[in-house]
Amino acid sequence: MKRRTLLATGASAAIAAALGVPARAQDKTKVGFIYVGPINDGGWTQHHHHSAMEMVEHFGDAVDFVYQESVPEGPDAERAITQMALGGADIIFTTSFGYMDPTINVAAKFPDVKFEHATGYKMADNVSVYSARFYEGRAVQGTLAGRMTQSNKIGYIASVPIPEVVRGINSAYLHAKKVNPDVEFKIIWIFEWLNPAKEADAAKALIEQGCDVILQHTDSTAPQQAAKDAEGDVYTFGQAADMAEFGPKPRISSIIDEWAPYYIDRVQAVMDGTWSSTNTWDGIGAGMVGIGEISSAVPDDVKAEAEALRDQIAAGEYHPFTGPINKQDGSVWLAEGEVADDGTLAGLSFYVEGIDGDIPS
Amino acid sequence: MDINPILLLAAVMVASTPVLLAAIGELVVERSGVLNLGVEGMMITGAVFGYIIGHGSGSAIGGFAAAALAGACLSLIFGFLTQFLLTNQTATGLGLTLFGLGLSSLVGQGATATYPVTVPRLPIPLLSDIPSLGPILFNHDAVVYLSILLIVLVWFIMFRTRAGLILRATGENHDAAHALGYPVRLVRMLAIFFGGGCAGLAGAYISLVRVPQWTDGITAGAGWIALAIVVFASWKPFRLLIGAYLFGGVTVLQLNLQADGTLALLDIAIGLLAVAAAVVWLTRSITKKAAAPMDNLLSVIILVLSVVYGLLRLAGMQTIPIEYLSMLPYLATIAVLVGLRASNAPASLGKTFHAST
Description:
The structure holds 2 protein chains of 2 kinds. By secondary structure, chain A is an alpha/beta fold. Chain A has 11 helices and 14 strands.
């Protein structure tokens, strides 16, 4: 009994020592990442990890890299982030929307640690937010989808009803409609970022209902597989990662999240002591949103059209949300030539005119 | 309405198969008096081993066999702990799930984004020639048929053979079974082994057919649904079949309803359900079979709900929040649990057996 008590005391003393004195004595910068899925999900998390590894490669021995994968959004995230902060991390990237409040909470307790939250909007002195203008990529996808569909039915596997996902749906729809006035969008919400079985079921349901182009805002490659196995031609787009292994068909293009330059930038800022809380929202032009190669399954003229749109957006000559655009209920959102401002886009919570169904609340 | 109901039915069969396989295994385990909450862990272990071996060997059969073996081996750990070291079954089962999730994640490192083997379809002769219906309903992969065959087999062995009688006796009263000279521990170990094999098979069906690929956490709680279905089915094989297809049906239906944007599909589904319930209720009332109060209760509940739905539709309801649909199977399970006051659960379920007591 006595010995056990002794051991317990010893252990807690050791833990206290480890926690109490953050291990920042060495001159290495400790960089932490919190991932929502496993690092091999084939999409969102895999690409964050990939970008993080590029950052590590860039700095070599100067950084100490730690990560935790498959951290559920919500209270458990707070524990994981706290643990990482206690472990002596100098900067922590939390890479999913649902980590927003946990990140803010933990950041308040660790004023000396820098936090970077992806796709959120709440900031603090030591919390930056960063996101990519994925809707710019969606405009390119919508154009391709509208041109490629034979049945005029386009399926959309939506994940969690937040503005980012709604923006993507609206942008894709507007641009599909522009090149093909007969298109109809069928949208399935699965309320998860990653659930391969559900994603596969959703893709199959859409295909069985006649959709021949599937867009996804979920993280796994299951919809790609479902499209590949389907009878007849079904086209898909890589999401977050290139998913080139499914090309040239069903995957005809992709939106690639290029986080590496940003990660290198921010870690460098921590090293230089110049880090400050910022709000970054970059698109195709800045290189944060990449358009994966448009495959040989796409006719040349369509490919050229999509690439022209991509270049226009990159050059800042065209904004995907340029009026006239009406809201779903028919009321005017943007007048002729008017461009949506970032504030409205950041909180976008309605469909544009022509999309059926409701956004789940 | 954009979808062919027969196509939908075929999708339901595929979506239900993993849950059905895992549940029939667990049913046998629970009938022997053991509660194994490790179904999820055994399933996902089966999923990863099935994927790796299936892909490595290029043979679907090899993959499924490996999966069943992996699940069964994992269940033996549970069996050894609970039957020989007399650990608490609930805690050990939960531990098995956590262990399985971790193990699969470890084993599955690097086993991603490659193409799995194709599982060939197996059209049933004659039946698959029925116009429009046949090519869809009777042209599945072999595992779908196997799962249904397994239900029949389990029912037959459990209620029509001496072995089944011994299994049930062990589950109802292990002391009496022991006093009669039956090897309680052996019977239970065999049941646990079978349950593990079924769970492994179920996992491999997800990673080799339904998705088909490997990612961490791919079973996404299907094992827990299997456990719920065993209760829903009151530990009866054929009711298990209905339960699993109901769960699978609601899953597939809610996705299709979203894509379709109208309630036409739901009208059909609820109409069919109401007719089925009415038939059950009428036959029970006519034959005055008192042995099945649950069937009557369920039928009445379904009929009442259908009438309410019909009235809402007539009143002009156009959409229904999908959250309600997703809730349905769980509500049904709770309703059954409440109705099961005079429980049908095996009397020795979850109790520790020691020959000296």
